[in-house]
Hints:
By secondary structure, the protein is an alpha/beta fold.
Amino acid sequence: MSNQILDNPFPFSNTNKRYYTLSYYYKEKYGQKVCKVPLDAGFTCPNRDGKTGFGGCTFCSSQGSGDSILARRSSLAIQFEEGLERMRRKWPNALGVAYFQAYSNTYADLETLKAVYDPFFEREDVLEISIATRADCLNDEIVEYLSEMAKRKPVWMELGLQSIFDETMKPLNRGHSSALVFEWIEKLKKTPIRSCVHLINGLPNETLEMMKESVKKVGEVHPDAIKIHMVHVVKKLHHGRTISCFPLPAFGTR
């Protein structure tokens, strides 16, 4: 054991983090490195296809924030296999979580969702299932199905909140209220499904106190995890000019 770990003053980290990291959680639970393998199942979002709006959330990329996905035009099976292979170049023998990351991954009828998810519950090389979605893309039928499947292997539901302040989120085209996210967190507590809430620090017009208030309110409802992103502004060259593209979430931690 390294001196770094021996001297670690934080009880829920093996990397001197002040918070309980997902990496530490998995290492304690499974005894080895666990990686989330990002996947694109070909969904869209209600604020992209016109149901609630167009253009998507301002903070989401044109690829549904699934920009790191390998072989995105290939089958989900190939996406997972190639993604896990890439992870294992850094962490040999790492275990894989199927992370349905791009767009809203419950935005479809139940039969479509079953066709996407059922094969991953059958795969022996898939440790857990993590599903990124929107609060307005959930219903009782979907949650009942995933609750039943969670008896076979763990299921995470990742919900994009970003900020509790609707006045912040309305101009960013989120398309639903903050209250709806909290409503689903409470419902998920009554199921085997684990909840993860996404927050973004540094959104336009938000003060430090507002960001603290978002964290406080989320902490009060006790989701199973919180993923914190930082605003990431990308500059690109367009016809000889540099343009700022605001904002994209940076990869965060739980």
